[in-house]
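Ticket #4471: structure output looks truncated?

Reporter: J.K.
Steps to reproduce: submitted the chain below (274 residues) through the standard prediction queue, then opened the result file.
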Amino acid sequence: MIYLVAGVFGLLIGSFLSVVISRLPIMLKKSWEAECREFLNQPAQATARFNLAVPRSHCPKCNALITWWQNIPVISFVLLRGRCAGCQTKIPSFYPLLEISTAMLSIWVVAHFGLSWQMGFALIFTYGLIAMTCIDARTQLLPDELTLSFLWLGLLISTHGLFISSEDAIIGAFIGYAVLWLIANAYKLIRKQDGMGYGDFKLLAMLGAWIGALNLLNVLLISTFLGLISGLLFLLRKKIKSTEPMPFGPYLAIGGWLTLLYGPFLLNYFHILQ
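Returned output as attached by the reporter:
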């Protein structure tokens, strides 16, 4: 019953995350444009209200509003056969896959931690990483609104020693940011071009606040390995060119999530910490 509740809850959260992933980058872009206009003393543009709640979900092609029965996670996608009820435009499979993935990860976390405070905050951590992963994969953007919010949350819960101590969390956040900052600046000094975005620094700092400094090496090993394998596969399949940037945040997120649950398992496997 607990796993069933976790799965249903995960489906609902996954549906909400799809809204965050789709709309947050647009909201940030509109905010940046307004700030630029204000800085340049240009008149503000009159735009329609746009946030996570407004306007209501609708088909981007025919603008037909999505009714409640068309918005049931996974079930509606199956009933509609993956197409808009109005214009029959194909609905991206991203939405049901996100909902199913969120449900499965929710069950995984509940099975691992059981009913506890750790479980509750690990679920929040999981949902945040899902949003960051998808936004970075789509836009190569890691919003400060997410990375910094979860960094402060990690520091806050460390005061109760839920996963690590406050000392480990503070040092982890500092080391997480500093390591990638040093690597990126060394790369820029040698190659005369940017090799990594500042969002990745903040994401690793956020992970450090949740898992501590020592575990960050485990995250870097996992993310580097996954990044190299993915990059090679994308190149072989001609999905990207060798000169194109590739988001690194999803791989950091995977490494951070696995490390929160299982500790420095990769380091222990290679006897690095022994």
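Triage note (M.O.): checked the attachment and the full token line is present. The chain has a mean pLDDT of 92.
Status: closed, working as intended.
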